[in-house]
């Protein structure tokens, strides 16, 4: 079937659909980071969302919209973690079974959570091709409905509800920043932000070691993922056709940041704000702190995307400690 990007009215409908089930997450500020950046930052804390990530919004919206006849055949997706958990929980809440294809290197905390939400897991190699092939095999055998982690209009609409809430709470933001992996969140964010405030600047942050969205943005065509070894495990996937269209239409800039900066910023947020975020979350703030985005005298909204961290395998230790 041909798919088209959702418009803002579909994001409003998604918000009504998920509101009784999803958390309206808090927005936090930090005088420490405001002083460091000479701006005002408003952190939308999706690390406090169900399943610990914004992904619940899109998965619940998409699965709740399915005809019961489709849902009863089962739900299948592929994901490194947060979308996996979101689909597992949203499927269970709707009374459907789910099978999740996960890469072998997915964080244990995310694997365990998927199991706890009652979904079956099938592991595969950590490549997009392997994920898609494994998911397709399940679809062919069972007739299950595939919920794409990001290249899906109902998923994008659900993710757009996050920026909707942020801009309802703080309508005078000058800039809104979110990480980009597959692009579902930045797509929904861009569509929402540009509708509610056409002059707002929408920026995506991406790891230097997974810069396919940055390269695609510059070249005007979808570029391949060249490596997947970034610490930001939620941002290792390639963008899709729908999300790339949204990026081209509603994102003003994409910036990249180093692994060292991602890890240090993650540590700074833990220490200064007393909240747990995963590495992918740190990317937008890392872009500001490394001078890639100037927010001096401006109000910037950042979506903190999730807090599912493997606590037995933290990326920082004594050697990165500040003197």
Automatic annotation (TrEMBL):
Matches recorded under InterPro entries: Ser/Thr_deHydtase_PyrdxlP-BS (IPR000634), TrpB-like_PALP (IPR001926), TrpB-like_PALP_sf (IPR036052)
Domain Tryptophan synthase beta chain-like PALP stretches: 21-306
Record keywords, A-Z: Lyase, Magnesium, Pyridoxal phosphate
Magnesium as UniProt keyword: yes
GO MF terms, alphabetically ordered: ATP binding; L-serine ammonia-lyase activity; magnesium ion binding; pyridoxal phosphate binding; serine racemase activity; threonine racemase activity
Cofactor: pyridoxal 5'-phosphate; Mg(2+); Ca(2+); Mn(2+)
PROSITE patterns named among the record's database cross-references: DEHYDRATASE_SER_THR
Magnesium found in the keyword field: yes
UniProt-listed GO biological process terms: D-serine biosynthetic process
Transmembrane segments: none
Family from the record: Belongs to the serine/threonine dehydratase family.
Entry protein name: Serine dehydratase
């Amino acid at each position: 079937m041909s798919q088209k990007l959702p418009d803002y009215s579909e994001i409003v409908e998604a918000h009504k659909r998920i509101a009784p089930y999803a958390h309206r997450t808090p927005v936090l500020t930090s005088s420490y980071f405001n002083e460091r950046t000479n701006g005002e930052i408003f952190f939308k804390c999706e690390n406090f969302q169900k399943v610990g990530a914004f992904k619940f919004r899109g998965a619940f919206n998409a699965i709740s919209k399915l005809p019961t006849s489709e849902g009863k055949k089962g739900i299948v997706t592929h994901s490194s973690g947060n979308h996996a958990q979101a689909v597992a929980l949203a499927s269970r809440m709707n009374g459907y079974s789910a099978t999740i294809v996960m890469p072998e290197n997915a964080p244990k905390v995310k694997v365990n959570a998927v199991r706890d939400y009652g979904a079956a897991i099938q592991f595969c190699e950590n490549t997009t091709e392997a994920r898609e092939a494994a998911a397709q095999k399940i679809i062919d055998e069972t007739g299950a409905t595939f919920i794409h982690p990001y290249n899906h209009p109902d998923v994008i609409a659900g993710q757009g509800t996050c920026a909707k809430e942020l801009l309802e709470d703080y309508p005078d933001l000058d800039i809104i920043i979110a990480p980009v992996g597959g692009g579902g969140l930045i797509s929904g964010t861009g569509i929402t932000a540009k509708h509610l405030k056409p002059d707002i600047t929408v920026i995506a942050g991406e790891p230097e070691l997974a810069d396919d969205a940055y390269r695609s943005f510059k070249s005007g065509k979808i570029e391949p993922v060249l490596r997947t070894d970034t610490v930001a495990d939620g941002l290792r996937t390639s963008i899709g056709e729908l999300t790339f269209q949204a990026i081209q239409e509603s994102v003003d800039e994409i910036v990249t940041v180093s692994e060292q900066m991602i890890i240090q910023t993650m540590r700074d947020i833990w220490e200064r704000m007393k909240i747990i975020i995963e590495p992918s979350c740190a990317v937008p703030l890392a872009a500001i702190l490394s001078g890639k985005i100037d927010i001096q005298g401006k109000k910037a909204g950042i979506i903190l995307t999730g807090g599912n961290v493997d606590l037995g395998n933290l990326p920082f230790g004594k050697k990165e400690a500040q003197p």
